[in-house]
């Protein structure tokens, strides 16, 4: 992702007119990878197929609700999200934010406010990825990592890196051979308010090892330093 407008955005709302309006608003601001869904079923398909970078979710949906949909998606991937709902009760807002959503806006909304909040969330979430990288790519064992395209090529197959995985791997590569603490990695990915993400970091590390290591259960390159953090093995060559 070279700029925030390149983010894949999943839009979920059962109101066809509002969904069309959201598409128009975001496209007008330069966002060019928009994926609309009018129910949970369509949202699930798009989430699996497109792997969005950001989600705007309605709460009331014909085949479920946005809260449960958000929790379902978050169990698979730590994708930032904004609830856009007609439910303006304080308890609903607090519940949505308590689940881990990045923001909650009630309908009707101001166009510029929505765009501002979307922009702020994307910049905060992906700031490490959006910064220019000094190294175009690195070789880790049999895996070739390309930071520009956020891909890993290994044994003739190519896999995509999520924004969080890319940020973690770049931080490790910038400090190759040295210990990168849990705090340093969490801050690189989630910013100053990273507290409580240590378990999520472990999940991302497992996914990275599955894409890079020959035996993820016995890693040779992405090494755990017990009680401190992680280290990318020195043998990595640019």
UniProtKB/TrEMBL annotation:
<dbReference type="Pfam" id="PF00486">
    <property type="entry name" value="Trans_reg_C"/>
</dbReference>
<dbReference type="InterPro" id="IPR011006">
    <property type="entry name" value="CheY-like_superfamily"/>
</dbReference>
<feature type="domain" description="OmpR/PhoB-type">
    <location>
        <begin position="135"/>
        <end position="234"/>
    </location>
</feature>
<dbReference type="InterPro" id="IPR016032">
    <property type="entry name" value="Sig_transdc_resp-reg_C-effctor"/>
</dbReference>
<keyword id="KW-0238">DNA-binding</keyword>
<dbReference type="InterPro" id="IPR039420">
    <property type="entry name" value="WalR-like"/>
</dbReference>
<feature type="domain" description="Response regulatory">
    <location>
        <begin position="8"/>
        <end position="122"/>
    </location>
</feature>
<dbReference type="InterPro" id="IPR036388">
    <property type="entry name" value="WH-like_DNA-bd_sf"/>
</dbReference>
<feature type="modified residue" description="4-aspartylphosphate">
    <location>
        <position position="58"/>
    </location>
</feature>
<keyword id="KW-0804">Transcription</keyword>
<keyword id="KW-0902">Two-component regulatory system</keyword>
<dbReference type="InterPro" id="IPR001867">
    <property type="entry name" value="OmpR/PhoB-type_DNA-bd"/>
</dbReference>
<dbReference type="InterPro" id="IPR001789">
    <property type="entry name" value="Sig_transdc_resp-reg_receiver"/>
</dbReference>
<keyword id="KW-0597">Phosphoprotein</keyword>
<keyword id="KW-0805">Transcription regulation</keyword>
<comment type="function">
    <text>May play the central regulatory role in sporulation. It may be an element of the effector pathway responsible for the activation of sporulation genes in response to nutritional stress. Spo0A may act in concert with spo0H (a sigma factor) to control the expression of some genes that are critical to the sporulation process.</text>
</comment>
<feature type="DNA-binding region" description="OmpR/PhoB-type">
    <location>
        <begin position="135"/>
        <end position="234"/>
    </location>
</feature>
<dbReference type="Pfam" id="PF00072">
    <property type="entry name" value="Response_reg"/>
</dbReference>
<protein>
    <recommendedName>
        <fullName>Stage 0 sporulation protein A homolog</fullName>
    </recommendedName>
</protein>
């Amino acid at each position: 992702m070279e700029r925030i407008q390149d983010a894949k955005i999943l839009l979920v709302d059962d109101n066809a007119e509002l969904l069309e309006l959201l598409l128009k608003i975001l496209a007008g601001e330069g966002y060019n990878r928009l994926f609309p869904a009018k129910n949970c079923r369509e949202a699930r398909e798009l989430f699996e197929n497109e792997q969005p970078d950001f989600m705007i979710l309605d709460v009331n949906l014909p085949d479920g609700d946005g809260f449960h949909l958000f929790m379902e998606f978050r169990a698979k991937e730590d994708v930032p999200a904004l609830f856009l709902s007609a439910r303006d009760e304080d308890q609903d807002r607090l519940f949505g934010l308590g689940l881990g959503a990045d923001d909650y806006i009630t309908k009707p909304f101001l166009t510029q406010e929505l765009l501002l909040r979307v922009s702020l969330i994307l910049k905060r979430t992906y700031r490490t990825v959006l910064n220019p990288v000094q190294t175009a790519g690195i070789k880790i064992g049999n895996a070739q990592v390309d930071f520009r395209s956020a891909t890993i090529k290994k044994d003739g197959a190519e896999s995509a890196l999520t924004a969080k995985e890319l940020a973690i791997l770049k931080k490790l590569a910038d400090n190759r051979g040295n210990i990168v603490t849990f705090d340093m990695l969490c801050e690189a990915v989630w910013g100053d308010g990273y507290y409580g993400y240590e378990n999520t970091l472990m999940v991302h590390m497992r996914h990275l090892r599955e894409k890079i290591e020959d035996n993820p259960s016995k890693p040779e390159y992405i090494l755990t330093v017990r009680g401190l953090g992680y280290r990318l093995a020195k043998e990595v060559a640019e």
